[in-house]
Amino acid sequence: MTLGARTLRSLAQSRRYLSTTRTLPSAQYTDPTKRHDIAIVSTPEDLPPSERHVLDSALRVDQAGEVAANWIYRGQMAVLGRDPNTGPIIQDMWDQEKKHIAVMNQMQVQHQVRPTVLWEVAKVAGFGLGAVTALMGKEAAMACTEAVETVIGEHYDDQLREMEGLSTSHPSIPLLKDVIREFRDDELEHLDTAVENHSQRAPAHALLSTVVGAGCKVAIELCKRF
Amino acid sequence: MASPPLLRAACALVPTHGFTRRALALSALSLPQPHEQPLSDTAINALFGEGDDARRTLADAWLENAREEVRGRFQGRAQVPRVNEVLEARLEANEPVLRHLPEAFALLASPTYPLPPLDPRPGLKHAFKVADDACRIAGEATIGTDWYVRRGTLAAIYAAAELHQLTSPTTAYAFLDTLLAASATAKSSLDDVGTFANYIARSWAGIVRSSGVF
């Protein structure tokens, strides 16, 4: 694992230790009683165009990433769903991703972001990747999860750094940063789960991780623009 | 984003003078601190572009102005408008300049360079922007591919209604309503077809699975 990912993992663990008693930031989006909160229904109007573009492409990529992650897990479940050991683990991770995509969809509507044109491509590619790696074996499926979650964790971190520069006092932006931090920690938790479930034992682990990681990075760059 | 004061003044003159360089020239006379003379040709060339490019700038600015007008009309309202109302409001914004609009669209479609002979892109972008605004004002919560499908259909409907308005302004609103109702019926029919096809496919999958082939 790269040095960056190891640092991120230790950060995530310390944050999880500190935050066990707090409610999650994404609860503001999933809680039905908070549906009319200004931080959830409106978008900042006073952003200059360059920063608005940063916000737009960040949310577009995040939404596309969550769609792809959902369909990767769906593909893995289609093959490994009946496995008594791995099935429940993948199902748990998939349920968390379902929560992520629900929040991301609400944010797309809230900030009036154009979703990616590659929406259907993300679905098909995700399903294909999940199914193919699951057919290669349980460890390969975990290795795929490990590679994808590493890239996503680093990507969310980069986004948080980009969003430091947003110059508005609208309450939705701090909430957005908190939600992305929470999702980053969730993805790193999935990374831990994958490693604990012997992803490193997968055949041709280095090659698989490199290919999947490179594919994810290409996908991220494409979704930022399209 | 507000257009510069000169362009805004020129847009106010379009109903009387059309999308011409004359409107641009006279815009200087209706500024808060008006000039003595209308703008000279060289000034217009420098500010807005040579020849027909200046008229294209004016046409673009007028379209942007109309979008802002529609947005402003629905800004403070407590009740969220429907897409029908927003598109009707946009058609109403066309009425003062209706006889000059065909020329404006012709200008936008005609090229600055010899090739391609006709450029459909500005017209399509205009229809798409109107549809996008309408969806935002009406607070539509479409996700993913639906976002594009919804805006594509609304853009096509609006473009058809606008073309209808250019030749027959009084019946344009009824035409717009008919088109929107037809698109809603078409969407619900397609959804029904999808549900039924899904049901049939699942039945067949069950039959194949139970036939013992696999």
TrEMBL record, chain A:
Fe cation 1 binds at residues 66, 97, 100, 187. Pfam families: COQ7 (PF03232). It is an enzyme of class 1 (oxidoreductase). It comes from the Eukaryota. GO terms for molecular function: 3-demethoxyubiquinol 3-hydroxylase activity; metal ion binding; oxidoreductase activity, acting on paired donors, with incorporation or reduction of molecular oxygen, NAD(P)H as one donor, and incorporation of one atom of oxygen. It is found in: Mitochondrion inner membrane. Fe cation 2 binds at residues 97, 149, 187, 190. Its cofactor is Fe cation. Keywords: Iron, Membrane, Metal-binding, Mitochondrion, Mitochondrion inner membrane, Monooxygenase, Oxidoreductase, Ubiquinone biosynthesis. CDD domains: DMQH. One of its GO terms (cellular component) is extrinsic component of mitochondrial inner membrane. Binds 2 iron ions per subunit. It catalyses: a 5-methoxy-2-methyl-3-(all-trans-polyprenyl)benzene-1,4-diol + AH2 + O2 = a 3-demethylubiquinol + A + H2O. It is a peripheral membrane protein. HAMAP family: COQ7. Catalyzes the hydroxylation of 2-polyprenyl-3-methyl-6-methoxy-1,4-benzoquinol (DMQH2) during ubiquinone biosynthesis. Has also a structural role in the COQ enzyme complex, stabilizing other COQ polypeptides. Belongs to the COQ7 family. This is 5-demethoxyubiquinone hydroxylase, mitochondrial. The gene is COQ7.
From TrEMBL, chain B:
Pfam families: COQ9. Keywords: Lipid-binding, Mitochondrion, Transit peptide, Ubiquinone biosynthesis. Pathway: Cofactor biosynthesis; ubiquinone biosynthesis. It is found in: Mitochondrion. GO terms for cellular component: mitochondrial inner membrane. Its main location: mitochondrion. It comes from the Eukaryota. GO terms for molecular function: lipid binding. GO terms for biological process: ubiquinone biosynthetic process. Residues 123-171 form the COQ9 C-terminal domain. Membrane-associated protein that warps the membrane surface to access and bind aromatic isoprenes with high specificity, including ubiquinone (CoQ) isoprene intermediates and presents them directly to Coq7, therefore facilitating the Coq7-mediated hydroxylase step. Participates in the biosynthesis of coenzyme Q, also named ubiquinone, an essential lipid-soluble electron transporter for aerobic cellular respiration. Belongs to the COQ9 family. This is Ubiquinone biosynthesis protein. It comes from Gloeophyllum trabeum (strain ATCC 11539 / FP-39264 / Madison 617).
